[in-house]
Write a structure and sequence with these properties.
With 304 residues, this protein is α+β, with helices and mostly antiparallel strands. It has helices spanning 32-36, 54-67, 76-90, 132-135, 165-176, 220-231, 276-289, and strands at 12-15, 18-21, 39-41, 44-47, 50-51, 95-103, 117-125, 139-148, 181-186, 191-194, 198-202, 208-210, 236-238, 251-256, 260-267, 270-271. It has two domains: 12-125, D-amino Acid Aminotransferase, Chain A, domain 1 (2-Layer Sandwich); 132-289, D-amino Acid Aminotransferase, Chain A, domain 2, CATH 3.20.10.10.
Length: 304
């Protein structure tokens, strides 16, 4: 499905406190965030005109900035209010929002103590998604050669731009090999996550098992789905999971803002059949986000 380039669209973007024309929301090529990855961001979904769990996302944006050594010059309340301005200005009812904070151009070098901290918020339509039936087909995951880093080597709990470099490399290779995405192990060789989503396994004991998020993001959607599973009487076990255990799983699915609840049909050479628990959680998540029953579509736009 063709889309227009993201730098050439109609609309407005909230940029350092004011709305600017979409095409004029620019930064200089010598911006620190571009050269040294000193930027943090969020990915948020809009359902029926409202961002799902907006305050949690904004609080995480602030925390990511803190972990990256800078402070965003707007409060959580101010950022939340700016979201409303962006959504109304662009007429977004069902869509995606990308807040981004970064160090500017005042200094160019590893040290950038005096650089301005910028904040922009963009939103675009995302009206379509797979129907529950289509989503039950299951995606295919390769196993990445790249691994999630040791917490002693990177700010792993920040949603920081630099941490996604190996995700892009992993996903590109997976796509070149005919897969949809890649599963990443951590530096110890344990199962971690996909390139932009957390992972769950329904094991023969009837419980959902998911890796402990000690070197990757404890996703907002991940926490939501754990809550929904608990409400449905399904026990969730957070523990270290080794790759050789995956073959035992009866169902596998991913969770994330973009992924929502996405069944997995294959990881490497292991195959799985999406089933009752996955469908139950897809439907429970749809209800939680307030998805309207009259919205049906056969295609989904990808965003990370």
């Amino acid at each position: 499905m063709a889309t227009s380039p993201f730098d050439d669209r109609d609309g407005t973007i909230w940029f350092n406190g004011e709305l600017v024309d979409w095409r004029e929301a620019k930064v200089h090529v010598l911006t620190h965030g571009l050269h040294y990855a000193s930027s943090v961001f969020e990915g948020e979904r809009v359902y029926n005109g409202a961002v799902f769990k907006l305050t949690e996302h904004t609080e995480r944006l602030h925390e990511s900035a803190r972990l990256m050594g800078f402070q965003i010059p707007y409060s959580v309340a101010e950022i939340n209010a700016a979201h409303d301005v962006v959504l109304k200005a662009n007429g977004i009812t069902d869509g995606y929002v990308r807040p981004l904070a970064w160090r500017g151009s005042e200094m160019m070098g590893v040290s950038a103590q005096k650089n301005r901290i910028n904040l922009a918020i963009a939103a675009w339509e995302w009206p379509s998604y797979f129907s529950p039936e289509a989503r039950m087909a299951g995606i295919r995951l390769a196993i990445s050669d790249w691994r999630r880093p040791d917490p002693r080597s990177a700010p792993v709990h920040a949603k920081a731009a630099g941490l996604y470099m190996i995700c892009t490399l992993s996903k590109h290779k997976a796509e070149q090999e005919g897969f949809h995405d890649a599963l990443m192990l951590d530096w110890r060789g344990r199962v971690a996550e996909a390139t932009g989503a957390n992972i769950f396994f329904l094991m023969p004991d009837g419980k959902l098992h998911t890796p402990v998020p000690d070197c990757f993001l404890d996703g907002i959607t991940r926490r939501t789905v754990i809550g929904l599973a608990t409400e449905a009487g399904i026990e969730v076990v957070e523990r270290p999971i080794m790759p050789e255990e995956m073959a035992q799983a009866e169902e596998v699915f991913l969770t994330g803002t973009a992924a929502e609840v996405t069944p997995v049909g294959q990881i490497g050479t292991d195959t799985f059949t999406p089933g009752r628990v996955t469908r139950l959680l897809i439907e429970a998540y749809d209800r939680a986000v307030g998805r309207r029953d009259d919205l049906t579509a056969s295609a989904s736009t990808s965003a990370a």
